[in-house]
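Researcher: Please translate sequence to structure tokens.
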Amino acid sequence: MNDPKESLPAAIRDRANLMREIRAWFDERDFWEVQPPCLSCECIVDLHIDPITVWSDQFGLAVDVPDRYFLQTSPEAAMKRMLAAGAPSIYSIGPAFRSGERGAEHNLEFTMLEWYQLDAGYEEGVRMLGSLAEQLLAHDGFDVLCYRNLFQDQFSFDPIEVELDILQDCILDLDRSSATADLAKSLAGDRDGLLEAIWSLAVQPSLGTERPVIVRNYPLSQAALAKIAEDDPDCAARFELFADGVELANGYHELGDPVVLQERFEKFNRERMQVGKKKLPLPERFLKAMQAGLPPCSGVAMGVDRLLMVRTGRAEIEKVLPFPIELA
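Model: Translation complete:
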């Protein structure tokens, strides 16, 4: 951080104020705060997110434990196990870890706010996220837009049905640099990769510049652990919050079917191996909890550091962290 004597106390103060405000907001709504473990022998399998591995021979334990543990990329698995065991609506604020993530909006260790609202569906989840964004970002209102409509309005094509060569041409039209041309070529045949490139180049930067925006109904291929959207069977009941062009939160109408969840994890592992990543073990304890039954709920994960960036007008995550990874 530049001029640490001046900026470090300000970053600590701003973070403390935000944490108090978050806790008060959830406490007023009768959510229980929980503290999931940072270290677990399981992790949620995802194509794009890589956990940091810790080998258990370092633990010095006399009892038999699995060979490897993972610093958790989010508290999702543990919190859903709590819900399956009978917990009410819950939230947590704590550290999460993701390998290889460092940049203006990323740090290997970051703070995640995650919550699960029982007996809440898609619409309730969107409304709660919007209400929280209004409070924490001091805005009057928020907008809700559909992923599909954003592409149709800006590019005059349906992102789910459009031919792949049109997506490649769209990327080239947005940026004629050789690096972008190489990117478009490398993503040939990868619809989600092409859509993500267009999204990053031309859609996301303008989202939430006036007030917070929640984008809903992502393509079913990007469902992660969300249910299918009832109002569009081609889409997932997934929603994301943006402010000042920054993605702040990702939410789902949560999928609880253990068979479908295992199928998705196995699919993500196949995709990981196709792009040269390591296969991750299936989260057996999590899946067993899902067999016992996940109550109907919506869930949201929010990056607290990014939220603090937007809230205080800072452009880099290191400006809101007491110690980024280089100084930790």
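Researcher: Any highlights?
Model: Residues 144-210 form one domain.
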